[in-house]
Structures are given as C-alpha cells and as structure tokens.
Amino acid sequence: MQHESAGPSPVFLLCERRAGLTSLNARGSQNFAETLPTEMSVRIFRELDAESLCRASRTCKLWRSIIDDSEQLWRQQCMLVRAVCRREVDSDRRDGLSWKVTLLRNYSRSRVKAAWLAGRYSGVRSADELLGSKMAPLDAETWGEILQAELDR
C-alpha cells in the first residue's frame, strides 16, 4: 500500500518556492518562533548583531515579545558595547537601567568612539570634513582617551 499525504511533499515545497526554505509543520506556518520553544528562538536571535536584532523585533508581535523579554540577548550585545564604553555601560547598570536601555543609550556612542580611537578621523582638518558622519556626544574623559590615542599615533 502506498502512503498518501494530505498535501504536497516537502521536496516539492522546497523546489517550488525556490526563494527559500518553507516551514513544513502541520499548520503551514513559516514562522520558526511559532513552532520552536522560546529558548531555541532566543538562541537563533543570539546570532544577530544589535542592529539586526532591533530590525527583527519589528518583524512581528511574537518576535518582538521574544526579543524584548530576553535580557540574555540584550546583555550579550551590551557587553560588546562595554568593550569600548566601559564607564558609560557600568554607570547605566549601576543606575538600574536594563540591558536593553543601556545598549540603546550607548550603542551609537560606542561606534563613534571606536572610530575615533581607531584613527578614522585622524586626518580631519575641519568640521566640514565630518559632515555626513554619524556622531554622538562624548564626555571629557572619552575625548581625553581619543586625544591620547592621537598623540600615540
């Protein structure tokens, strides 16, 4: 006796769509977060960088809920920012801010600070050369670090 299926075979779905993989669960869902345990979805989201994580949280209500509720995701991203902005991140955490808020407050600052410390703006002769560059406010201690890095170059 030959096995009859209720719908098209998984191979047919994969080949037919060609745009990507299709979820093959019984409900026909294409959202992995609907079928996987939350912990597994979090593990998948951990592979994203901070910008992609924020974009993913705008995909649907379920993804937003999983991402927003996971301190683990925000802590991981925040620790990357802390490598550049240790004082700022530690201060925000001492003030009781969540990992997510701490990340949002310090992400742009860390990107700008890292660029300055790496010498990206070493050859700037006037403020006009910075037009179009993303900047963020930096404190006096950070400017001291940047100036010391310039002197060391």
Mean residue pLDDT: 84
Q: Helix-strand pattern, N to C?
A: HHHHHHHHH
The largest pleated sheet is described as:
none
- How many β strands by DSSP? 0
Helical residue percent? 55-70%
Evaluate the radius of gyration.
23 Å
Q: Which blocks of ≥5 consecutive residues have pLDDT under 50? A: 1-5, 7-25
Q: How would the global form be characterised?
A: elongated
Number of helices: 9
* Tally of separate domains: 2
Spatial separation of the terminal alpha carbons: 78 Å
- Give the oligomer, counting copies of the same chain as homo and different chains as hetero: single chain
Strand content: under 5%
Task: Report the structural category.
Answer: mainly alpha
Give your account of this protein's structure.
The protein is mainly α. The protein folds into 2 domains: 10-69, Monooxygenase, CATH 1.20.1280; 74-152, no CATH class. It is 58% helix and 0% strand. The chain has 9 helices and no strands. It has helices at residues 10-17, 32-35, 38-45, 50-56, 61-68, 71-82, 86-94, 99-117, 140-152. Helix 6 runs antiparallel to helix 7 and helix 6 (71-82) runs parallel beside helix 8 (99-117). The longest helix has 19 residues, at 99-117. Mean pLDDT is 84; it is low at 1-5 and 7-25. Pathway: Protein modification; protein ubiquitination. It holds the Pfam family F-box-like.
